[in-house]
Amino acid sequence: MRFEVIARDATARIGLIEIEGKKEETPCMLWYSSERISTPPFASLFLSEEKAISSSGSIFVPRKKKILSIPTSFVYPYTLPDELHEISGEWNKEKASFFQIVDAKAINKITLDSSIYVLANAREIFSKPREFVRSIINIRKKIGYQKALYAPGLAEPSNIAILSYLTIDIFDSISLIEKARKRIFLFPEGEYNFDEKTCHCPACIERKDFERVLFHNYYALHDELQKVKNVIREKKLREFVEKRVCNMPHLHSILTILDNEYYAFQEKKYAVAGKKINVSCHSLKRPDVERFRKRVQERYKKPESARILLLLPCSAKKPYSFSKSHMLFRKVIKACKNPYIIHEVIVTSPLGIVPRELEMFYPAAHYDISVTGHWSNDEKEMVKKCLFSFLNKNKYDLIINHLPPEITEFIEIGEKTCVDRPTSSPSLSMLSKKLGGVKGDIVRSSQRKYENAFSMLSYQFGEKEAYAIMKGCKIKGRYPYYKIFYGEKQVAMISERGLFSLTMEGAKRLASANSYIVKIDDFVPRGTVFAVGINQADEKIRVGDEVVVCHEDDIRGVGVAMMDGEEMVESNKGKAVKIRHYKS
To answer: At residue 345, what are phi and psi to the nearest 5 degrees?
Structure first.
């Protein structure tokens, strides 16, 4: 009996659970079966007819002792005092086996010896979004990422995506049966009472009365669960969740609370590289988007010789430099006498501000947003906060504002050069005139290249780490495809992922800053480092990060993290680092 995570997408995952020799992929369903309730043809795991269900549908009590059963539980209603939950939590701990009933108000009573944890009072807590989110996160922090969590009586086609996003692995069919008894047809978009033909699923075509509704609900949930697994594999679950919650106030509350109050819990599971984001109203608080803003404010250091700040609008095409509008801007900039003194910063939603040298990084090069010229109040406040925080840390001699009127109406800063549209001839002419009058010491191309690379590294790793990597180095190649060399030795280069990839020389330099290090047992990794061989890992490590693999002080390899640092240490299964170079 075991559980292993085999695929990850942000907080969600696909796991492989083995129960009495049978393997099943999670997220998965337990299908309730009795003489009166049939199970669907695709059912593979069952809540047997030898189990009774309480009226709340949240606690399962075995009538007969079986090889594998959910233990008899003693659970007080969630609203009762914590002291009572401590008593029931102790009782449930003593009855724990492969399964363990867990109480969100008795976290300290949870043991780590079980494989599947069953959330007590699941429905009662689910009705209170803030309590539900807090309960799931507190339990997950206690049991870790390598255990399966089961939330009884909750699953419906409309909520299976966000429940999976909340790291719940196992569901059951209880709610589907209850809704069928009320003739409620369930869909991902919500629930309906239909009298006429509902859809073209096998149930609606072949069955009648109660079984028609019941099996329709079965098929609807099964289809949605398969979609959830597919989008996890495609690394697109967050986007899918945002679509599902937009018309569901209860689920909207859960996601909003999760984003506003539990950024850290989510962020550590988000990869530093990814696919295109189709921006919705919920994307402003996406953890990977929020992380980009935080790193620009906290890690990033602007090029030192860049004394003139030029604010520019974003473009539909990404990276911005490849768009027609930004080619026009770059042409005007290059035509001025001292182009390398100018620092281009793009103003955009949902990222806030994007310094030109960061435009290749995720998610700056990977988002698509509807452009209407209308900015919401949340977007305006976010952009102003990002810009003014940036200016508090990074000083300039002059600010040139080449933003369109719909942005300058809430960002009234700098000398304006946009007459109507930023790409119109009068606007470009005014920008050219303003840049032509810029004064200051001439900045050489080689100096600015070096500083750009340093700024990029400070964003990716941190300022201390950037100093360690760049010491004594030179930059080769044209922007943005920089290569860093120390003498004849290559240290790093920008990869197709938009991040700097390190050589063994680069790994030594990063290790000297005592950062992004994974410590392993005494072996030379070739290909992949599995979690079982890892003793220690930097907590800063995220999926997709460049990491240095060491045994004690001996650098054995460098590669890309496939788990975050916390999970590398917690887990004893799965691939943790994909090695690019190793010690010969």
So the answer is: -130, 125
Single-letter amino acid code for the residue at 338 = N
Report which residue type is found at 175: S
Distance separating alpha carbons of residues 533 and 521, to the nearest angstrom: 6
Phi-psi region for residue 336, left (φ > 0), alpha (ψ -120 to 50) or beta?
beta
Q: Which of 142, 185, 188, 181 is nearest to 164 (CA)?
A: 188
Strand 28-32 with 500-502, pairing: unpaired
Euclidean distance between CA atoms 404 and 313, whole angstroms: 7
Query: Which domains are present in the chain?
Result: 2-261 (3.20.20.105), 300-436 (3.40.50.10630), 480-582 (2.30.130.10)
Q: Three-class SS of residue 580?
A: strand
Cβ contacts of residue 564 below 8 Å, gap of 6+? 268, 269, 541, 542, 543
* CA distance linking residue 217 with residue 220, whole number of Å: 5
Model pLDDT, residue 67: 47
Distance (Å, rounded) from C-alpha 362 to C-alpha 275?
Answer: 8
Is 459 in contact with 453 (CB distance < 8 Å)? no
pLDDT (tens digit per residue) in 133-187? 999 999 999 999 999 999 999 999 999 999 999 999 999 999 999 999 999 999 9
- CB-based contact 116:170 (threshold 8 Å): yes
3-state secondary structure of 194: coil
What residues contact 352, with CB distance under 8 A and at least 6 apart? 293, 296, 382, 383, 385, 386, 387
Rounded to 10 degrees, the C-alpha dihedral 544/115/134/6 comes to: 20
Distance CA(551)–CA(278), nearest Å, equals 42
Tokens representing residue 267 in the block: 């962020």
CA-closest candidate to residue 466, choices 456, 481, 480, 476: 456
Distance of CA 164 to the CA centre of its chain: 13
- DSSP per residue, 88-106: HHHHHHHH-SSEEEE-TT-
Give the whole-angstrom CA distance, residue 279 versus residue 277.
Answer: 6
Q: Which two tokens stand for residue 367?
A: 């988002």
Q: Is 542 helix (H, G, I), strand (E, B) or coil?
A: coil
CA pair distance 22, 68, nearest whole angstrom: 12
Give the tokens for residue 250: 């209860």
pLDDT in the model for residue 194: 75
Ramachandran angles phi, psi of 274, nearest 5°: -170, -170
Q: Is there a contact between 182 and 29 (Cβ–Cβ < 8 Å)?
A: no
The two beta strands, 99-102 and 116-119, are parallel
307 pLDDT higher than 50:
yes
Q: Are 541 and 549 in contact (CB under 8 A)?
A: no
> Residue 480, preceding bond cis, omega within 30 degrees?
yes
CA distances, 541 to each of 192, 252, 379, 566 (Å)? 45, 30, 30, 8
Least confident of 111-120, 190-199, 560-569: 190-199
Distance spanning both ends of the chain, measured CA to CA:
39
**Reduced to 3 states, what is the DSSP secondary structure of residue 127?**
coil
Cβ–Cβ < 8 Å for 167, 143:
no
Residue type, 58: S
Strand partners, 52: 61
Residue with tokens 């790093």: 492
Of 513, 582, 500, the C-alpha closest to 549 is 582
